Amino acid sequence: xxxxxxxxxxxxxxxxxxxxxxxxxxxxxxxxxxxxxxxxxxxxxxxxxxxx
Length: 52
Description:
- By secondary structure, the chain is mainly α.
- The protein has one helix at residues 2-46.
- It has 1 helix and no strands.
- The chain is rod-shaped, with a radius of gyration of 22 Å.
- The relative contact order is 0.07.
- The mean pLDDT is 95.
C-alpha cells in the first residue's frame, strides 16, 4: 500500500507540473493577444478606419 501511495504522489506531482505549464502558456498567449490588439488599434487609427 505504501508503494501505491508513493506512485500516486509521483503521478499527482507530474499532473501538477503539467497544469502549471498550461497556466504559463495561457499567460504568454494572453500577453501576445494584448500586444496584437494594441497594434491593430494603432493600424486602424492610421488608416482612419476608426475614430481616434
